[in-house]
Design brief:
565 residues; 4-stranded parallel beta sheet; 41% helix; 17 strands; alpha/beta
């Protein structure tokens, strides 16, 4: 190891030992995330950035004086020295506000332009003020998103024999601005590669938590989309929690990631959510269900595609959506990118990467869901699922959002009462979830009662299909009433196909054929063009295999020829 690098590690070791011994500062350690302890960073050169910060403070009861605004670049990607200037100014602001006591910035700068941090030696526990006053730093749209790589700033990474001392892929200093800011007060932080996140669920480290600020971002492809993150988070909370279905789309390229998604599915199932678990490697689209996806976890498509291509699609209030891909957040302005697209379609929380993070260093969705299920806030849960900092990840959402603030049983009870008094298209999913939750706990009596309420208080296609499937399990299949005109909307195409398949499997082939026929007879834009060929082929194969008459088989055969030219 080169002498310069050995000395750097020795210095770091001494610094960390000193900080641990005297509790020099404490960022982000608190028993509860509260509005008074959230600080916002806005770009004073961008009016909308400052307006968004004020909007959040108004909606969430955060003191307006907690906004830190100064001019910076309006570009999403900035150079390392531009980031250092932002970091220096923010850190000095925290010091000036008394949030970081007995700490000063040296006039000396490191090669990247970052001011060195100096700590006084007479520090006591009573002066560990930053952690007591700052729970979260919320970065507002308009603040740069990512830091470009500057290889000239990297330390030497090979010995005299030319043998690599650091994996070439990790020998970079490109990163997300947010992930860098999480360690803004750590002195002499190594410039290249990731650093361990002490809040990570696998290896939480209480002492190191004192050195870390939890950071997330209010952002999206438009100012209005960023505002909706806040309003729709509050809307879901006031409704008693997120109502809808869960979708876990497995089949990615690596076994480790698929294990994460399996664990995520288990947690969602334990919460009672009716769920689609996709295993084929294909994206969820119009040939699969995607009605009311209030939780979506999938991977591994480069660009936003699948169900998101439906131009009329919109997530229910309170949706947490995540598509795992190495470059899902290279920009939050382009709706073709996953993070931008998910927020644009109404999700209130998502997670992404601005550059290549590598799988092990990506967000672990099962730890996020595990923490949310315990009633933790989004920022707590997201940091529990983030393995490293000073790296590529971002968290987009309202840090105070708590989808499961209530005890699960209490939440379901309250949601049922609201659904009875004020039925909505989402009511059916609340009753379905309650039935699933009761049955998983062995409470068949409760499941039976709520099942009857589902038929009484809701009339959606999802609820009808759920009841039919439940009754078939008990060998008392009721008369299937078939889909209504309202049920034929585009969001239900996948559900209609699943219903047809289910009916066919249970001997009700004529009714299945009717659904295929009604679906394909709808206006041409009912099915997104890239999926219509698959639906046609499925309907044709079904009719031929079962020798069914009275269908529009001839028309379908003519239409499908167009796709084969």
């Amino acid at each position: 190891m080169p002498r310069q690098r050995r000395e750097r590690f020795r210095t770091m070791k001494k610094i960390f030992a000193f900080l641990f011994a005297f509790s020099a500062f404490s960022i982000g350690v608190s028993a509860e995330i509260v509005p008074e302890k959230i600080y916002l960073l806005a770009n004073a050169a961008d009016e909308e950035s400052v307006a968004l910060a004020n909007f959040y403070c108004e909606k969430r009861g955060v003191p307006a004086e907690n906004i830190i605004a100064f001019e910076m670049s309006k570009k999403e990607t900035i150079e390392r020295r531009e980031y250092s200037a932002i970091r220096n100014r923010l850190l000095q602001n925290l010091i000036d506000r008394g949030l970081l006591k007995k700490v000063a910035l040296s006039k000396e700068l490191d090669p990247a332009g970052a001011a060195l941090v100096e700590y006084q030696r007479d520090i006591g526990m009573e002066d560990a003020a930053l952690g007591l006053k700052v729970d979260c730093l919320l970065v507002c749209r308009g603040v740069p998103l990512r830091v470009a790589n500057d290889q000239a700033l990297m330390p030497e990474t090979a010995d005299k024999d030319g043998k690599s001392l650091m994996q070439e892929a990790l020998a970079v200093n490109c990163a997300s601005v947010d992930s860098e800011l999480a360690l803004l007060a750590v002195p002499n932080l190594p410039l290249g590669g990731p650093s361990k996140n002490p809040f990570f669920k696998k290896t939480p480290e209480a002492e190191m938590q004192k050195m870390t600020v939890r950071v997330c971002r209010l952002d999206g492809p438009s100012f209005d989309a960023a505002k909706r993150i806040v309003t729709r988070s509050i809307e879901a909370e006031r409704a008693g929690g997120p109502a809808g279905r869960a979708y876990v789309d497995k089949g990615g390229p690596y076994a480790e990631g698929n294990k994460w998604f399996d664990e995520t599915a288990k947690i969602l199932k334990d919460l009672g959510y009716d769920m689609t678990l996709e295993n084929t490697g294909k994206l969820l689209g119009q040939t699969t269900r995607y009605d009311a996806p209030v939780f979506y976890f999938g991977w591994y498509a480069r660009r936003a595609s699948g169900f998101i291509e439906d131009p009329d699609f919109y997530f229910p209030a309170g949706t947490v959506a995540f598509h795992l891909h190495s470059f899902s957040a290279t920009t939050l302005r382009d709706r073709k990118e996953w993070c931008a697209s998910l927020i644009d379609r109404g999700a209130v929380a998502t997670f992404g990467n601005v550059y290549e993070p590598f799988l092990s260093f990506s967000l672990h969705p099962h730890f996020v869901m595990e923490s949310l299920a315990k009633g933790e806030t989004l920022i707590e849960a997201a940091f529990a699922g983030t393995p490293v900092l000073s790296w590529q990840g971002i968290i987009v959402g309202d840090p105070l959002y708590r989808p499961f603030a209530e005890d699960i049983k209490e939440q379901l009870y309250l949601q049922q009462m609201r659904a009875k008094l004020h039925p909505s298209p989402l009511s059916q999913y609340i009753f379905m979830r309650t039935v699933n939750y009761a049955r998983s706990r062995g409470d068949s009596r409760k499941a039976e009662i709520v099942g009857r309420e589902l038929k009484l208080f809701t009339a959606g296609l999802a609820g009808k299909f759920f009841v039919a499937a439940e009754e078939n399990e008990g060998k008392t299949l009721s008369v299937w009433t078939g889909p209504t005109l309202l049920d034929m909307r585009r969001e239900n195409v996948g559900l209609l196909l699943e219903t047809a398949r289910w009916l066919a499997a249970h001997g009700r082939k004529a009714e299945a054929a009717t659904i295929y026929g009604e679906l394909l007879a709808r206006p041409s834009d009912q099915i997104v063009s890239k999926y219509r060929k698959a639906v046609l082929e499925e309907a044709i194969a079904f009719v031929k295999e079962n020798h069914l008459t009275g269908t529009r088989l001839g028309e379908w055969l003519e239409e499908v020829k167009k796709y084969k030219k």
